[in-house]
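Q&A FORM
Asked by: J.P.
Topic: structure of GNAT superfamily N-acetyltransferase

PROVIDED:
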Amino acid sequence: MPDSTTHAPFTYRRLTANDLPAAQRLSAAIGWPHRREDWGFSAHTGSGFVAETAGALVGTVVCWKFGADQATLGMLIVAPQHRGLGIGRTLLAYALDEIGKRDITLYATDAAQPMCDALGFEPCGALDQMQGAAFRPPLVALAANERLRPLGASDAVQLVELASRASGLDRSHVLPPLLDLADGIALDRDGELLGFSLFRRFGRGFLIGPVVAGASPDAVHAKALISHWLALNEGALVRIDVPHGQGLRTWLTGLGLAPTETVVRMRRIASAQTRSEPRRADGSLHQYAVIAQSLT
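REPLIED BY: S.T.
REPLY: Here is the structure written out as tokens.
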């Protein structure tokens, strides 16, 4: 797209680092907790577009490309006083043009779902945002040859591989900068890396995600990776976003993390020929918590 395009009275252009303070204020105005640093991570790893009028930023959207055939969308915001004027649809058009012929995944709120329906997105799951500050998780017992250990610099390549296989998205671009921002813990069995979880500052508190592990009885591996962070941060505001079907919502609720929002996972296939997500090396590897809703 050109540097800027005007559809009176609005101007559309690419998101730049100079827009981050205004973007953060816009998200805060609709109740989203994102800090300027959270916006900075989105801008650094994705491609964004903004809408302006009279010098004020009134809309945003960000997209992320994962390899040659996958992408995600998020951070679609329109200032309440300017809704219903086509801003959101125009921003999405710019993002879709940027993405090109890739399959696209996003999480849609109830308000955004009709527009996504009209653009050819179809529901394919859901996700619960869980949040709390009062928890004291019980010890999660692992097998005798399994342990949790801090991540090391030599783990980076394996982490990208595990995260890519679990999500079905190429994480080689987004995970390294995330590791610069987050603390991490690995699940290890006799020296073999089985899974991991990351913990970082986000919004008004902290966020756990992604959480990647293989299937295990009662999801014990995922629970161990999550409990580690909860035990270290009792009293802190912690959030975790968990896809439906992983069996963690009831367990997390029992620990004091309440569901605060449920969003619908939607997907649009780039071509008429239906394609599934890339085949994983291990079909039993799961993403029990996402990096962020926008990055899925």
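FOLLOW-UP: The longest helix spans residues 87-99.
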